[in-house]
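[#protein-structures] MJ: dropping 4Fe-4S ferredoxin-type domain-containing protein here for a structure pass
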Amino acid sequence: MKQPRKEVIDQLIKTKTSDKWVKRDLETMAVLTEIIEAAEVDTELHETLKREYEPYLRSIKAGTMDLWREKYKSMVNVEKYWKKGYMLRWDKETCLCKPSPINEGKEFTDNNHMYNILDQEEMDVSYEFEPIWGEPDAWGPNFMVGYIMPKMEVSTGDFYSYVVRIIRDKIGMQQEEMAEHEIPASPEKEMDMVKLKAEIKEKAHELGFGVVGFTKVDRRFLGNGDDEVAPYQNIVILGMEMDHEEVEEIPNPGIETGEQFVMKIYANAGEGSHELAEFIRSKGWKAHPRVSLDGEVKFAHHAVNAGVANFGTCANTITKEYGPRLRYAAVVFEADVEPDTPKDFNVEEFCSRCRMCQKSCPTKAIPKEAIRIRGAMRRRLNDKKCFASMIGLHNDCGFCIKVCPIHKFGFDKAMDAIPSYYSYNLD
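AK: finished. structure tokens for 4Fe-4S ferredoxin-type domain-containing protein:
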């Protein structure tokens, strides 16, 4: 006989509130679902609950709950991980804390004066408590179909130009991420780390990457605190140049060249990261690509740590080779090659006197001065305003790249403009 609705509700409330710890227990979720099923409440609610709790119900009925608890028991004792300097991540599946892999890249950031760290503890806690965002809100299928593809047709005359390649490479990266432990590497390992590093760099240049640097993964700079995107501790940062002539066509990309200044690089760099990962596997070491249009591994921070770039006013990185005129990809890999060291190119001395990007930004997304963020002084680009400019308002924007004197005249000429008494760090 069906229970009266009031009785069901009372029983539901009693079950939820009888023990403040029990209400988060997976078994309690199952009990609540069964109560609602017994009451034959409306179908839509029943189906919603069923979808949400089905995995838990299956695990309980299969008798695996005790196995789950045994497997993750060590995660509950977090004190030993705090003492060793691990970052703690929240595991949504088990509702427990688990330790991140040891953050070997931390020392490169912490000892890099270009981050202007004011409070190291504040910086560490802020990234653990509130991880940096992953992909921007604007990215996704609607972004590709509603914005990128029509732009491709205008710029290149091909509705699908580059987009199919970008999507294919990103899906391939995500599939590799899920099956990383199953991807084979050559059984013959190159054990000479100096030789391996040189070979990786040479291969990267062959694939079209003009800027190549090595560092350790800093797990504070992984989107949403997702350690799975970087299963290894070593990362090679790969910078690919956007063609000078195509950048100069902004704000009407493709008007002469028939190319869109940035999407071609996203496509080429994405394919290049997959090829380089395969090359590293051929040397006997596991590797995982991170394509250019990624969002989860923060390339800019790792590029600065790897000594190939400095931060500029516009929150882009500035390199000696191309100024702000490049996009990054990366490969995280198993081999413990010697990391490169950060370098100060005197970019801040130049940018603080120039500010052409900040003055030219049509949506005022670039701040004039640095502010305190996460225990450090830095300029925080307003990415919402920036995306608003790129997606429709100013036809892909890119003004910050086009107006940069280092892009227009080259690094050396730009640095020559700094008064000699400020040029403290130029060789």
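MJ: nice. The radius of gyration is 25 Å.
AK: one more thing. The longest helix spans residues 263-282.
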